[in-house]
Amino acid sequence: MDVDEALSRLGRFGRWQVVTYCLVCCSVTISGCWHMLAIVFIGGEPDHHCALEEGQWKNETIPLEKQKNGDYAYSKCWKYSNFSLGNETIKCDQGWYYAPEYKETIITEWNLVCDKNYLMETSQSVFSVGVMCGAVVFTALADRFGRKKVHLGCQYSMLVIGLIIAFAPNYITFVILRFLQGAVREGAGLVGIVMACELFPASQRTFAGTALELFWAGAYMALALMAYLITHWRHLQLVITLIPIWTYYYRFLPESIPWLVANGRSDEAEKILQNAAKFNGISMPDRILHPHENGQVPNDPGSEVDDSSETSKMLEATGKARAFEILFFVHFVIFVVFCRFASGLIYFGLSLNTSQLVGNKYVNFFLSGFVEAPAYTLTVFVLQRFGRRYPLFIFHLIASVVLMAVVWIPEQTVPLIVTLTMVGKFAMTAAFGTVVLYAPELYPTNLRNLGFGMASVWGRIGGTIAPFSSFIKVAWAPSVAFSICALVTGVLALLLPETLNRPLPETIEEIESW
Predict the structure, then answer these.
(1) Which of 375, 465, 503, 509 is the most buried (most CB within 10 A)?
(2) Model's pTM, two decimal places?
(3) Where does the record place the Major facilitator superfamily (MFS) profile domain (predicted)?
(4) pLDDT tens-digit map of 24-67
(5) Helix, strand, coil % in the chain, rounded to nearest 5
């Protein structure tokens, strides 16, 4: 039997699949989510103004400035040069006073405000650049050396780097370490997602790819609670680094069976399948996999081995070159550039800017994570019934309409604005989950991680740009931009091939036949 049939014979949700899947999901989502989104609180910006000298009063020393919404508020960066003589203003020259909502953040510790306020968003963008590099480097390594080694190597690196970040002495060190953190975080995440999907046959892959995101939603909400209780950024950094240590296991995590078979290591795949069948209490034949059915040709003794090996290498090289040509012109342009870029831009734009919504920042952040759980749950059932293309279009359309509607809602209607924003986040979460599942299904086995990594690069480019949306002086511009991107992406998604109930392609020829 082939790999897909062998995985089906293990049972729909056997103990081996459930335990292994949960281990992979925890290792992917907990530390990955926290290290990516904790910057909302680690880099939290409290209300502030120029520090006052003894005998000075705020209403006499700090001028009023017009805000984006048209209201007036005390200036954060200027003060009157001599409040008793005139209206001439100067920059803060005695430091700043910060409201006591945090014990310490990187902003308050290193005074990343006013002329330096771009440095906060820059640090997150540098993290995203690291993510892009990790998406390319580690996914390619995973295709070459295996999923398990690369995934766990990235996890251990994330632990070490996370601990060092907590003791970063200055901003430059912090940014460099965040770049490295982003790279290994993405390596662990992308390779882990592929590992989770490759545990199941085609009929269960929709569930596997989307249910994983429920673990992300749980970690998202837990981060809001931890940030509320721990308001010093160094302490929070230590906590989000040390808590996930229990997910850094080795012996219980098997190598990907499809990867082993595709790379001529059927004996190892056979051993894993036999152990899985035994763990599930299922009787399997002594020889589960047959080499010819998995695209392998058994070696014969003698000189024919060398010739066969050389021919195999030539065919592999030719096949990869041809695959890249087709994937570049079809999937790369249509899917990667538009779908991944827009999904990353909008999803991270909404996630990282929750603290700027009216209302309590911790509650808003929690709600932003809470809506992801039903969004991913809905995605599981919708994608199994209606496929990938049409739901992806509908999700983007809903997000586009809702985000455009927010522009026309009066700012005084706080509950309505928050509600519509969360509906938009709900739709984009469903779209993002669909894209994460969809991407690996469009690439053959030996190019799946690399292709998925290239797709992720464009998503992270969107994530790199997203933090700077808060600098746009026109308050409604980010919502309009997100709305237009969502609409265009939804329409373009209709041009992609449908992958519902198709086995993961092992060769480029399979993709061509769709």
Answers:
(1) 375
(2) 0.75
(3) 79-501
(4) 888 888 888 899 889 989 988 888 788 877 767 777 777 777 76
(5) 70, 5, 25
